[in-house]
Specification:
- The structure holds 2 protein chains of 2 kinds.
- Chain A has 19 helices and 24 strands.
- By secondary structure, chain A is α+β, with helices and mostly antiparallel strands.
- Chain A has 3 domains: about 150 residues, Aldehyde oxidase/xanthine dehydrogenase, molybdopterin binding domain (Aldehyde Oxidoreductase, domain 4, 2-Layer Sandwich); about 160 residues, Aldehyde oxidase/xanthine dehydrogenase, molybdopterin binding domain (Aldehyde Oxidoreductase, domain 4, 2-Layer Sandwich); about 220 residues, Aldehyde Oxidoreductase, domain 4 (2-Layer Sandwich), CATH 3.30.365.
- In chain A, strand 14 and strand 15 form a beta hairpin.
- In chain A, helix 13 packs parallel to helix 17.
- The N and C termini of chain A lie far apart (about 60 Å).
- The relative contact order of chain B is 0.16.
- Chain B has 2 domains: about 70 residues, Beta-grasp domain (Ubiquitin-like (UB roll)); about 70 residues, [2Fe-2S]-binding domain (DNA polymerase, domain 1).
- Classes of the chains: A alpha+beta, B alpha+beta.
- Chains A and B meet through helix 5, helix 6 and helix 16 of A and helix 1, helix 2, helix 3, helix 4 and helix 5 of B.
- Bound molecules: FE2/S2 (inorganic) cluster (2 copies).
Chain lengths: ~700, ~150
């Protein structure tokens, strides 16, 4: 049995038949039915490469089907950098099975020994003689062939497509401005919906007086509890109608904690502890030669797709069809069925691409909005688009986190004890079938969203790969005032910021170089390799003293089981404005076997840029009455003007399993920047985002000995 | 009824005079290549060319466009820009790309060989949330180089 077949993907137990995944079409193309959706990460291209490789087909003969609840396997959410590892392997095994079935079928049909049958360029050959196309073997194939996992996929040294930089299947349509997105779909008789929502955070509808209100083009004003939506003939009529309706509404506001010291407030709300790693640090700490402790914080942050969420729904003949850019059409279908109190099979969900979402944003909520309005206007497709303000205020955020670490150094300068305590809200509030996870649901019923409770996302990468002696890792969960859910990497971003900043602080305490110090605490060969290569590419020099320009390193293996990434940042600080100018980022990644190196680089670069943006700019901020998040001025993100040069290096491991890498470059970014800032200036920043105001404030609080080291 | 000159054709549109042009484009004319992002003039997704200059379709009342020459991504002549975006694989979700290509086209019309910094400045009001910036910059740089060279050789 091959190594790959040993990791039999669980999804194949649920969908064991080849035909659930692959279909040979009469024109010799092959249709592929993945359950994972395109989020801009290039998954469709990578899956096409995998199937084409195993089936010896030219890439152009692969058609990746759209993901729907009619035809696609239920692969849950497309999240967590799992698509290539799991679906990629499932499809690879399915395609390997089909390849062998085709050979057997040809042997049968042409009464030829199996060894003489070859597949090449999408055709069947006996020795060098052409026999037929794949489609002609249809009647000789077992219709219900199961995927055994026993057929070995092709060996990496025979790969022609896997490992090659491959052009994205979707790019031509996108640069030409074709209708690539859900937002672009125009169905016959389509009408336009908009939803009335408060313009400050968390407010509840108090009154809505519509006497004498005239709304041009209005087809329906739908009110169910506090859920209020309208449907108009034309889109701009709906926009205007919503403006008028909003003027007639009054709201009961909800007092928020002061965001200036939000973390202190959140600390008081802790309800549950999860011990991630048991340990007994106290005694060892006592005995340590040197001790250090520090606290780090990260703010609430938002997904803020480049465009707000959209959905279309059509209710016709007792059947509801919803076009959505949700990350999981099956879980969303279960949720909608529960919410609407309708049988699941009376709902069809069709995935269409949206703007990049980076996690659980407004996509699922708006699908419920469209569904409710479609039920009120049967027979017409209703398209609902949120406003940017609605997206900024009503999407679930990533929770603010606090990370407290204590550690000690032994006489040999190595860490002998480590005590990590994280504080976070949950990171998963996705819909899945409980019926209470979508905004329209709790507006309708007047209930509150139930707190989903602790989940793995909070302590993702709270543990590290380092040997840290007596180590204890605890994560405490608070139930905070804002709605939260999954944002790219979940807790790994904050946890890694703290861990990798603190490793740096300890390196200085030990009088050691940050690169050397990390290597001294690492056995994992692949982890060491990404760090060493990054240091070499960056011309890493053992640390001198602050010079105004700095280099900072950070490392993480995403989820401690996925891709390895080391990053080095080179930056300067403008001593007048206190603005950080990142000059260069070097990323080195080992993601096991690489399917599409160009696609992988694209993902890693994207994660790097978002990581910079989250480190330097992004912060959800409200006034006490919930005012504050209305447009792009309120939520600053990185723009073209401050984009640094990014160099990305890949270590290909063709003989090893694929390691998910879609998120892997984001976690180390924050610490790499903070560490480079320290190297440049001697200023240690422990709170994100690292804004000029925070740097200036930090300078004011430095002790005299700390100030002596500062260079500006 | 308004008469508009768009992508070299004359079109009559029904929409009310003050309707932001983005709705006319995407709904009435079926030209969905111009993307709708913030609808507030902040993200650049809806950029079109009007008399050769970059304009935000979400902020432009339809009536102000009568008598002017409008170009959307569907009618863009500078296809070498699109070729360069493909060559550089400069897209992740790709939602921002149409507006960015239009902004770049406007830049190249006044400055055929911009430096990297000039390209960055021209794109300062175009958002890309996927982090595709460097590939986008490279695509525009390459497009301008190859194009200005090919123009010289003619
Ligand atoms: S949609 Fe026009 S600038 Fe954002
Ligand atoms: S590629 Fe997704 S916003 Fe630019």
């Amino acid at each position: 049995m091959s190594d790959l077949a040993k990791h039999f993907p669980p999804i194949l137990t649920k969908y064991p038949l080849v035909k659930s995944w692959l279909k040979i079409n009469p024109d010799n193309t092959v249709s592929v039915f993945p359950g994972k959706v395109e989020l801009g990460q290039g998954i469709r291209t990578a899956l096409a490469q995998i199937v084409a490789e195993e089936l010896e087909l030219p890439l152009q003969q692969i058609c990746i089907s759209e993901v729907t609840t009619q035809d696609s396997p239920d692969e849950g959410y497309t999240a967590g950098s799992a698509s290539l590892e799991q679906s990629g392997l499932a499809l690879r095994l399915a395609a390997a099975q089909l390849r062998e079935s085709l050979r057997r079928a040809a042997a049968l049909r042409y009464e030829t020994p199996l060894e003489l049958i070859d597949l090449k360029d999408g055709k069947v050959w006996q020795n060098e003689t052409f026999l037929c196309g794949y489609a002609e073997l249809k009647d000789w194939l077992e219709p219900d062939e199961t995927i055994s996992g026993q057929i070995a996929p092709k060996s990496p040294n025979t790969h022609k497509l896997i490992g090659q930089a491959t052009q994205r299947l979707d790019i031509l349509a996108k640069v030409k401005g074709e209708a690539s997105f859900l937002h672009d779909i125009r169905l016959p008789e389509m009408v336009h919906g908009r939803i009335l929502r408060p313009t400050v955070y968390g407010a509840k509808l108090k009154s809505l007086d519509i006497t004498g209100l005239e709304l041009t083009g209005l087809i329906r004003l739908e009110r169910q509890g506090n859920f209020v939506g309208l449907v108009c003939q034309e889109e701009y009529q709906a926009v205007k109608a919503l403006e008028k309706l909003t003027q007639r509404a009054t709201w009961e506001t909800f007092e928020l904690p002061h965001f200036a010291n939000i973390h202190n407030h959140l600390r008081a709300l802790v309800t549950e502890d999860v011990v991630v790693k048991e340990g007994n640090p106290e005694a060892t700490l006592e005995r340590s030669e040197k001790r250090l402790e520090a606290s780090y914080t990260t703010p609430y942050q938002a997904h803020t797709s480049v465009a707000p969420s959209c959905a279309i729904a059509l209710f016709k003949d007792e059947h509801l069809t919803v076009w959505t850019h949700s990350q999981g059409i099956y879980p969303l279908r279960r949720e909608l069925a529960k919410l609407l109190n309708r049988p699941e099979d009376s709902l069809t969900l069709i995935h269409k691409e949206g703007p990049g979402c980076y996690g659980h944003n407004g996509a699922d909520d708006v699908a419920a909005d469209a569904a409710l309005l479609a039920l009120a206007v049967p027979g017409k497709p209703v398209r609902v688009l949120w406003s940017l303000e609605q997206e900024l205020q009503h999407e679930p955020y990533s929770p603010a986190m606090m990370l407290d670490i204590k550690a000690g150094l032994a006489a040999n300068g190595k860490v002998n004890v480590w005590d990590f305590t994280g504080l976070t809200d949950t990171h998963v509030g996705r819909p899945g079938g409980t019926g209470d996870r979508l905004r329209a649901g709790w507006e309708r019923s007047g209930t509150q969203l139930k707190w989903p409770g602790p989940s793995e996302g909070g302590y993702r990468n709270a543990e590290t790969l380092y040997n840290l002696g007596e180590a204890k890792v605890t994560t405490k969960f608070y139930q905070g005032p804002l709605r939260v859910s999954a944002l790219r990497t979940l807790g790994a971003f904050a946890n890694t910021f703290a861990n990798e900043s603190f490793m740096d602080e300890l390196a200085y305490l030990a009088g050691s170089d940050p690169v050397a110090f990390r290597l001294e605490h690492l056995d994992d060969r692949r982890a060491r390799a990404v760090i060493e290569i990054a240091a070499q590419k960056a011309n890493w020099q053992a640390h001198a003293s602050p010079s105004g320009q700095g280099l900072g390193i950070a490392f993480a293996r995403y989820k401690n089981v996925k891709a390895y990434v080391a990053q080095i940042v080179k930056l300067t600080l403008n001593s007048e404005t206190a603005e950080i100018q990142i000059e260069k980022v070097i990323t080195v990644c080992d993601a096991g076997q690489i399917i599409n190196p160009d696609g992988l680089k694209n993902q890693l670069e994207g994660g790097t840029v978002q990581g910079i943006s989250r480190t330097l700019y992004e912060e959800v901020h409200f006034d006490w009455d919930g005012d504050g998040m209305h447009d792009w001025d309120a939520y600053r993100v990185i723009g073209f003007e401050t984009i640094p040069e990014i160099e990305t290096f890949l270590i290909d491991q063709p003989a090893l399993p694929i390691l998910g890498a879609g998120e892997a470059s984001m976690p180390p970014m924050a610490a790499a920047i903070a560490n480079a800032l320290y190297d440049a200036t001697g200023i240690r920043m422990r709170d994100l985002p690292i804004t000029p105001e925070r740097i200036k404030k930090r300078l004011e609080t430095l002790s005299e000995t700390e100030l002596e080291k500062v260079i500006l | 009824m308004l008469e508009l000159h768009i992508n070299g054709q004359t079109k009559r549109v029904q929409a009310e005079a003050e309707t932001p042009f983005i709705y006319v484009l995407r709904n009435e004319l079926g030209l969905v290549g111009t993307k709708q992002g913030c609808s507030l003039g902040q993200c650049g997704a809806c950029t079109i060319l009007v008399d050769g200059k970059a304009l935000r379709a979400c902020e432009t009342a339809t009536e102000t466009l009568s008598g002017k020459s409008i170009v959307t991504i569907e009618g863009l002549k500078e296809t070498f820009l699109q070729d360069a975006f493909i060559a550089e694989q400069a897209a992740q979700c790709g939602y921002c790309i149409s507006g960015i290509i239009m902004t770049a086209a406007a830049l190249l019309r006044t400055n055929p060989k911009p430096g990297k910094q000039e390209i960055k400045t021209a794109l300062k009001d175009n958002l890309c949330r996927c982090g595709t910036h460097n590939r986008i910059l490279k695509a525009i740089e390459k497009a301008s180089q190859t194009h200005s060279e090919s123009v010289r050789h003619v």
